[in-house]
Design brief:
single chain; alpha+beta; Enolase-like, domain 1; five-stranded antiparallel sheet; globular
């Protein structure tokens, strides 16, 4: 790990004022410190933001507002989250390990970097780490890589379980920078790699995530998160699905569907949603709708299994909702 300056700003305004091109914000540190040790990230200034007033969980406005510094374990355990948005609690429960969830912040989880082995190995090229150096994953080991949204420059998957659930629920992020505050749809916040995979999100220089806002969706009580991985704990998704469905009798009248482990960002499946709406809530409907998920997939040499796994994950998640009727 290289030397760096360490500062503790006392206000959000002070934090964004001090932030520069060579600085990094520190919350739980579960990603940043790890990558600094590997010298994947080498900031010359680290700004500890844990003293900032960015905590709290509020449901009084009809939706859900989560402060960016709230810890993952606290949000997952909150009865308001478990009751009104079970998909969020489940996605958090299935993230990382219990120890890490007590440290990691909500904002930090949304901004965590990819787990691609080439990105984390400074002895190999990586366009995310060093633009223009190449992407060994395209022709190399790519079993865990993306089949949606990849380009010739990058096929790394997005690692956050929480982000998948939030994208399914039309969540937004509040950002604070030198030019003031703004709100961005989380679905649009993450950028496709294209020719610039080092630009991962719509976060301007010095900007800070301050809050996550989830709209009021009373029927999101019928939601779930399913995660498929190589081992049962502390492992990132090969495939995951966040689904929420509103029924009128046996008929699906509204649906939200997103997947993880498949794309270079959390992937909303609007075609699957359309295929569900207006149909009876049956396994036959789920299988037919899930078949539309593979449109546009581009498997690599070692991950051709992923489109079929995505379909099966979606069907499993939808069938699990049958238990909540």
């Amino acid at each position: 790990m290289r030397s760096y300056a360490f500062e503790r700003p006392g206000t959000v305004t002070d934090a964004v004022r001090r932030a520069g091109s060579g600085s990094a914000f520190l919350a739980g540190g579960t990603t940043l410190v790890d990558l600094m040790k590997l010298e994947v990230m080498t900031p010359d200034r680290v700004l500890d933001i844990n003293r900032l007033p960015l905590r709290g969980l509020d449901t009084t406005g009809g939706g859900l507002r989560i402060g960016a510094l709230e810890r993952m374990s606290d949000v997952a355990a909150d009865p308001r989250v478990r009751r009104a948005y079970p998909v969020l609690g489940q996605a958090l429960d299935l993230s990382a390990s219990g120890q890490l969830r007590t440290m990691a912040s909500i904002g930090g989880n949304l901004l965590q970097r990819t787990r691609c082995g080439y990105f984390r190995d400074v002895s190999t090229p990586c366009n995310k780490r060093l633009p223009g150096s190449g992407c060994p994953a395209i022709g190399g080991e790519n079993r865990t890589h993306a089949v949606l949204g990849a380009s010739g420059s990058c096929a790394a998957t997005h690692p956050s379980d929480l982000a998948v659930a939030l994208v399914a629920l039309d969540a937004k992020v509040r950002l604070q920078g030198r030019e003031g505050a703004r709100t961005v749809d989380l679905r649009d916040f993450y950028l496709l790699p294209g020719d610039t995979p080092h630009l991962e999100h719509d976060l301007r220089p010095g900007e800070l995530v301050t809050e996550v806002v989830v709209p009021a969706l009373p029927w999101a009580r019928r939601s779930t998160y399913v995660k498929i991985r190589d081992r049962r704990s502390f492992e990132f998704a090969l495939s995951s699905a966040a689904v929420a469905v509103r029924l009128d009798g046996d008929t699906i009248v509204e649906a939200r569907v997103a997947v993880g482990g498949m794309g270079t960002r959390p992937w909303r499946l609007t075609a699957v949603e359309r295929a569900l709406v207006g149909r009876r809530a049956t396994e036959e409907t789920y299988v037919a709708a899930a078949a539309t998920a593979v449109e546009g997939t581009r498997p690599l040499r070692h991950n051709a299994y992923k489109p079929e796994l995505m379909k099966r994950t979606l069907v499993r998640a939808l069938l699990e909702l049958e238990q909540t009727r």
